Every structure is written in structure tokens, then in C-alpha cells.
Structure prediction request, 135 residues.
Amino acid sequence: MKKILIMGLPGSGKTTLAKELVPMLKAKWVNNDKVRKDSNDWDFSEEGRVRQAKRMSEIAEKYKQDGNYVVCDFICPTPKARELFNADFIIWVDTIKKGKYDDTNAMFVKPEKFDFHVTSRDAKVWATKIAEKIK
Prediction:
């Protein structure tokens, strides 16, 4: 089983892709906004994002240890956040040049390593290709 990270700028289509991919893999889904809401943690500083990456990783790791594929969609803007999350499979949703938040745009570092590069907004098509590669 794998811990799958769907990462990219806000508004790039991460959640839309996750909605398509999760049923194809019969995966558990960990959504960034839901986890932040449940934790009541809306700190988007570097420290807050590190904390969120650790939180997302811990939740996903529990599902993975129970024998599930786990799809996690969140920005994961820095190499440090990605390292802390420690994904088995990284999907970079690279469909926009600029997100809706200037602070996120400023800190977002394009990933050097990823397993799948999504370059357009056809989530059904991409999810099918990704599921085939993962299985």
C-alpha cells in the first residue's frame, strides 16, 4: 500500500483529482482543508505548514499501516514539508502558474522529484493513468 501525495498550488485541481482517484484505488482520503478544520489550525506560516505536513503524514501513515492506499491532497509547498510528509508516490498538479494566495506563491518551490506530472485539468483522464501506474 502507498501513501500518495497530490501536491500543487491552490486552485490547481488537487482535490478534484483526488475525488476521481480515491474510488479507483479504493483508497482512504486525507484532505488538507478538512484536517486543518478538524485541528482548528489555520496557520499558513512556514512553521504552520511544517506542522500540517507532519499532521497529514501521521494520519496517512495510520491508514497505510492498516493496509490501505492513502490519497492526500495538499499544497506541500516546500522541500522540507515534502520530506516530512514522506510520500511513497508524488503527483505534482502543475496546471496553473500562480495560485490565489501571494504568500503561498512566494514560498512554493517546484518539486525536483515526483512520480507523476499532471499538466492539464482533465481529472478523470489523469486519475485513470495514475491509478494504472500505481496498481
Notes: The chain has a mean pLDDT of 96. The longest strand covers residues 3-7. Residues 3-134 form a domain with the Rossmann fold fold (CATH 3.40.50.300). The CA atoms of residues 102 and 108 lie 10 Å apart.
